[in-house]
Amino acid sequence: MDITEKSFSLSRRDDGIALLTMDVPGETMNTLRAEFVPQMTELLTQIRNDNSIKGLVLISGKADSFVAGADIAMLDACDTQDKACELSAAGHQVFGALENLEIPVVAAIHGACLGGGLELALACHKRVCSDNAKTLLGLPEVQLGLLPGSGGTQRLPRLVGIAKALDMMLTGKQLRPKQALKMGLVDDVVPQTILLEAAIKLVHSGKKRPKRKLSLMEMALERTHFGRNILFDQALKQVERKTQGNYPAPPKIIDCVRIGADEGMAAGLATESRYFGELVMTSESAALRSIFFATTDMKKETGAAGAKPRALQKAVVLGGGLMGGGIAAVTISKAKLPVRVKDISEKGLSNALAYAYKLLDKSVQRRHMSAAQRDNVMALMSTTTEYNGVHDADIVVEAVFEDLKLKHQMVQDIERECSEHTVFASNTSSLPISQIAAVAARPENVIGLHYFSPVEKMPLVEVIAHEKTSPQTIATTVAFARKQGKTPIVVKDGAGFYVNRILALYMNEAAQLLLEGQGVEPLDKALVKFGFPVGPITLLDEVGIDVGAKISPILQQELGERFCAPAAFDKLLQDDRKGRKNGKGFYLYGKKKAKKKQVDTSVYKVLGITPGVAAENAQLAQRCVVQMLNEAVRCLDEGIISSARDGDIGAIFGIGFPPFLGGPFRYIDTLGAAQLVSLLQGYQQRFGERFAPCERLITMAANHQRFYD
């Protein structure tokens, strides 16, 4: 019996209510697939022709999910726009048949109800969801470069209003049960134990839904053609500001909603289907889908072939600074592991506790958790100024100053105070792990765990193995990072590891352009237009000019003259410019700060330059980006990263490399190795050896090779 014969079952109750249960065999979550269409069509025909059925409840047979969306893999099988369009049209047909049933239809939702899953629920006449924390509702297709293709762009605005629907679809945000109820997305929120009972009660209340109450503003904007045009124009402007025109899906989402509102449901659905087909075939969607598949595959890997992680029961964090506080916070809030923070001062410990409390309290303010839940999570965090209560730690994360002697002391202290299996993970951004492990009695337990700031927001961590790190230590550290909600990539030990190494040349080139007379603002704008979340000069201010200056000499010493930092760093530090941290950098901070971020023009005098006419955005961006691409290939060639996939994920999640380009390696495939070599050689002739293309790129160009098939 094939999968479609088992994925849906119809059962009839004595009271005339039928239950349509979805339970895809062999999967932990339900996903919608094209091959389900015939079975769903047949079942709906049965229901329509059975006069004994007075109402229908759709429910999932899975323990913790309703329907997590459509199976993304089937989109990759679409080799033409027409085939993708047909997928959407098939969804329209089935969901339309469901919506047009004359009996009341209610969706009983528990767990993930996303993408096609929510579109299925929207085709029902009413919806009830559980109050469980695992229940989330949303249309996240935009994050894959797509739009909701099974009627979502038409049914959601009609249910919750145009403005709220656009906000959901353009951001891909996921709503918790109470938010969904307040918005009118669901009709009721109940405990999971009575979900089916509540759904049946809703069936008995009939198909008719009470009219949504509109404010005067909503009436003016959404119920008139003139008002809607204002709303759609504003949405387009916001989208353009946010995406810089690099993502084709958001404007098409807006257009689908506009056509549906102005010309009716049929016209809206036809537009949705056509645009869905177009978007599936775009390079942007292909790149974003590749990220989805890569991160999904990585979750199945331990980081070391054949190795199993040790069980994790308790963690220790050394250092109560910003990094230590952030690491401790995600350990208690995400990993739900007890954590002991050790610092030499009570002030450091107080700061770490305050940091974690502030983050958790934000969730209370947003009603994502109760005050009691916050306090229960905080109870997982304890502190000490001595090595008390650390002996049973499974992993110790060291987040002290970047000082090798101090880190050596930390290794020796932990080996003395903890068990022989305790993993010692150093959060260092520049020091080689082999040097930190040099004093260890058990070097196999020593590993690098490089977080990015701010810890609670940045998704990537680099897990750095030196030559003596054991496979089990790698697997345990990867498992720990995943529990914290992070995406870990395993990298080989070496100066700058991977992310900082490719970032350094990019930042150096931006600084070089600045010294040549490019303005701070035009330079930042050029890289934002290219697709980075912030420009390189803004990033330097945020990270700290002093941090950049400290890392550069280490990279230059270990990796060569191409890492020689421009003189800009020294001049800025002599003027005590460290960036945001001391309120003095390239931009104005503190009392001088205007509503819109403004350049501190006095920085030009410090650098001894007069900014001239800016070069074109594309030229400025290209010169910085090709440096990053070239160095990424070197890292792969040297085994710093084990695959192009890891390199792409590291760059996207670590430094915000434009996701719509798929990462440095996918972007090189798009450009072509020969084109990149040609660009690098052109810059090499003009600016020197720092642009020399690496050998692997030259070989790939000569042999017309790619990183991905």
Topology:
Layout: H1 3-6, E1 8-12, E2 17-22, H2 37-49, E3 55-60, E4 65-67, H3 73-76, H4 81-99, E5 105-109, E6 112-114, H5 116-122, E7 126-130, E8 136-138, H6 152-160, H7 162-171, E9 174-175, H8 177-183, E10 188-190, H9 195-204, H10 216-222, H11 225-243, H12 249-263, H13 265-280, H14 283-298, E11 315-318, H15 322-333, E12 339-342, H16 346-365, H17 371-378, E13 381-384, E14 395-398, H18 404-417, E15 423-426, H19 433-436, E16 446-451, E17 460-465, H20 471-483, E18 487-492, H21 499-515, H22 520-530, H23 536-543, H24 545-559, H25 568-574, H26 602-607, H27 617-637, H28 644-655, H29 664-671, H30 673-687, H31 695-703
Parallel strand pairs: 2-3, 3-5, 4-6, 5-7, 6-8, 7-10, 11-12, 11-14, 12-13, 14-15, 15-16, 17-18
Antiparallel strand pairs: 1-2, 8-9, 16-17
Helix pairs in contact: 2-4, 4-13, 5-6, 6-7, 7-11, 7-12, 11-12, 12-13, 15-16, 16-17, 21-27, 22-27, 24-25, 27-30, 30-31
Structure description:
By secondary structure, the protein is of the alpha/beta class. The protein folds into three domains: 3-281, 2-enoyl-CoA Hydratase, Chain A, domain 1 (Alpha-Beta Complex); 315-495, 3-Layer(aba) Sandwich (Rossmann fold); 500-639 and 672-703, Orthogonal Bundle (N-(1-d-carboxylethyl)-l-norvaline Dehydrogenase, domain 2). 50% of the residues lie in helices and 11% in strands.
The CATH architecture of the largest domain would be Alpha-Beta Complex
The main sheet comes to:
8 strands, mixed
Query: Would you state the CATH class of the largest domain?
Result: Alpha Beta
Overall 3D shape: globular
Could you list the spans in which at least 5 consecutive residues all have pLDDT below 50?
Answer: none
How does the helix and strand content classify structurally?
Answer: alpha/beta
Helix content: 40-55%
